[in-house]
UniProtKB/TrEMBL annotation:
Protein name: Peptidase
Transmembrane segments: none
Upper classification of the organism: Bacteria, Bacillati, Actinomycetota, Actinomycetes, Bifidobacteriales
Pfam families with a match to the protein in the record: Zincin_1
Length: 142
């Protein structure tokens, strides 16, 4: 009985020259994309903030988008191109959205990107709850 090539344990590439395997291991740093690293950094900062302020962080949804929308929110007189918050309304929880491309453009290194992500998250949480960013994270802005 003939078996489909993709069901076989090892099969050749479409030209029949060799086996299909990744060029490098999936656990190597080259395999991770810039967007994946950005998501990991954001998740680490959210976990850190959740450990310190669980009552502020748990009811908020966090998201990452590539670029900001062309139309700013009606309540923002000067839109921030790095992040945006949406207050809760009509059963929809509050949301904080970070925009990956502008933040990556500002950052010069991985550490710099982590600090920018931290500052944006803290600033948006402070805006959402009407607090000063220094109350949420004393290291904000340093």
């Amino acid at each position: 009985m003939i078996e489909a090539p993709w069901n076989a344990r090892v099969y050749r590439n479409r030209h029949g020259r060799g086996t299909r395997t990744p060029m490098f291991g999936t656990r190597l740093p080259r395999y991770r994309t810039r967007s994946g690293m950005f998501d990991d950094m954001m998740a680490a900062q959210i976990r850190r903030l959740n450990d310190a302020w669980p009552q502020l962080v748990r009811p908020v949804q966090f998201a990452v988008e590539d670029v900001p929308p062309s139309q700013p929110a009606p309540w923002e007189t000067e839109p921030d191109l790095n992040s945006q918050y949406f207050p809760s309304a009509h059963g929809v929880p509050a949301r904080i959205v970070l925009y990956r491309m502008p933040i990556q453009t500002l950052a010069t290194s991985r550490m710099d990107m982590q600090l920018i992500i931290r500052d944006e998250l803290v600033e948006r949480l402070a805006d959402l709850y009407g607090r000063r960013p220094e109350e949420i994270d004393p290291d904000w802005g340093l």
